[in-house]
Amino acid sequence: MSGFRQLSSRLHRAAVQPCRAALQHQQRRHARVSNVRFVQTQQNVAEKYRHLLEQKAKSEGMESVEQLKEVYKPQIDRYRRDSIAPPKLPDSLSHASSSSSVLSSAPDAAPTGTVPITDPPPPPPNIPKSSAQKSLASFVDVPKILLHDAKEIEYIWRARHLADKNSLCATIPLATYRRLEAAARKHPMFILPLPRPDQGVELHFLQWQFSSPETSNVMFTSLIEYKLRGEYAAPHTTVTHHLDICEEKGIVLLQGSVVENRGVSVEEAKWLLMALQKFYGAEEGSGEEASRRQELLRLFSEGRGEFDVQALIREAETIN
After folding, report:
1. Would you state the pLDDT for residue 112?
2. Which side of the chain, N or C, has fewer Cβ within a 10 Å radius?
């Protein structure tokens, strides 16, 4: 079984099976969970990609999608059986290979069909620091900004991003960032529940990437998008931490952007960032709440069957 299918199996078990129990989950302190659902149903997904299936059938000399499904029935049945098996994080996607990304922002990398195949998919691509990723110098004059103290730099940094309505920006104390980084290197992938008023909870997949000594990135995509497109899933939010001045000023500059019309607003992206800091910033020995969040990170990272989405949702409900 390929790495992607094993991870998809684990996410499927983590996200879909507990959703049934969440239908009766009662309102808690800060978020109401009336049910847990995804953005699209499987029927909608099939209709959305039907034209691709028709093209696939035509290219193989078949008359209809139904005939195509019949031909691929053994592979489809095998995939369904495998998806029920206890999930296990594959070695190729373990925290030891955090430089490999399962999220690609390349828009032209979409798969050409949705029919399962027997050959393993290509491994997740390594995404090096590219021209698309802006350096700190592209935002500010670094030598000049070093003339200011940390508080003044924070004002300058926020003012620099005021004109962009889809931007995210913040300054993070270096000690706080180092705690986040240490947890992220051990657990580079995770899922976060996003409460939506009167709609329930939507799960989002995140991955850290350490692309250079001066930067680290976090990419967010909806779980349904990741399950549909795997390593080709397009992030709705990308965040970069700039460490260029962290030693001199004791702060890390955060900059990110939210893609329009991809299902997440800027305010919702801010909430996901806050939730990320609550889970990855939980200090060992700092209380029962921190211990629960660290344990959820560990269980998900190790692909353990004990990982409980309902426990994850309960923790998210306590985030102000």
Report:
1. 36
2. C
pLDDT digits (tens, 9 = 90+) for 71-122: 877 766 665 554 444 334 333 333 333 333 333 333 333 333 333 333 443 3
Percentage above 90 pLDDT, the chain:
46
Angle among Cα 101, 41, 279 to the nearest 5 degrees reads: 45
Which phi and psi (to 5°) does residue 253 adopt? -95, 125
Instruction: Select from 99, 130, 115 the least CA-distant residue to 209.
Output: 99
Inter-CA distances, 117 with 63, 77, 89, 100, 286, Å: 20, 11, 21, 23, 47
> Nearest CA to 83 among 206, 1, 21?
1
Q: Decide if pLDDT at 254 tops 70.
A: yes
> Quick one: tokens of 64?
């209809």
Local structure of 240: helix, strand or coil:
strand
pLDDT of 290 above 50: yes
Cβ–Cβ contacts within 10 Å for residue 270, how many? 15
Question: How many other CB atoms are found less than 10 A from the CB of residue 265?
Answer: 13
Contact (Cβ atoms closer than 8 angstroms) between residue 272 and residue 237: yes
Nearest to 204 by CA among 261, 289, 266, 269: 269
> Model pTM?
0.61
Residue 211 · residue 127 · CB < 8 Å? yes
Furthest CA-CA distance within the chain:
70
